[in-house]
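<derive_structure_tokens>
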Amino acid sequence: MAISFFNKRTRGSANAEMSFVEHLEELRWHIVRSILAILVAAIIIFIFIDDIFDKVIMGPVRNDFISYRLLCDLSHSLNLGDALCLPPIPDGYKLLGNTVSGPLMGAIQIGVVGGFIAAFPYIFWEFWKFIKPALSPKELKYSRNAIFWVSFFFFMGAAFGYFILGPFTFNFLANFTLGKEGHYTYMPSLSDYMDNLINLVLGCGIAFELPVLAYVLTKIGLITPRFLTTYRKYAYVSILIIAAIITPSPDWTSQMIVFVPLVILYEFAVGVSSRVYRRDQKALNN
């Protein structure tokens, strides 16, 4: 498959004499430039690491975090009382560092992951430049604005993970108690907190690529709109279970905060698949 892909790149490139090794060399430079973009963004983040750590990284466990205020204001404006008001994070929320290099490694992790998120459009652009010569004119026509849409859904998912799932998750875990006599002291480690936050942000960023994935899989014939609609009820049940696990309260309104966006995303993916499928069928009939 790799040889076939490189042969397609050779036919579509300006230089039709490129060898397999030359393709690998070009790929290497795309990767190098992507890494440099991450490093530049990471250095900028590292310069402001203290403010970023206090205001951004620790944001979901700060009681003045914007998500807590907006959810509570929304609850009151809808006459739901305090249904959407999450309980306050316990006073003195601290992260434990139990290694000598903990602060430095934490700062590096914040810089690298933050650099990747900030540089994501450029990274995908480099990837797109590499595969573009292998695409046919028809494929290029249908993949216009790919960089914009892939980046858009990634950032939308990352924002959802940070501003919605993050506060719900960390608030629930911080207020969950074990025992009544105070034998257990809750003090999560810096690495554990960072790993969970990164998983939420990057995980949602990837999950929100569902419409893009539906587009690609429909184009290559692996799925159809009928497949997505047939298994819609199973998808809804799965989404509802995920929402029930994530939300700290059994109240339906808080679960809907998570459930509704994921359902909308699924239905949007169905719409994307339907449009692509109809267009392809029309082209075949003509």
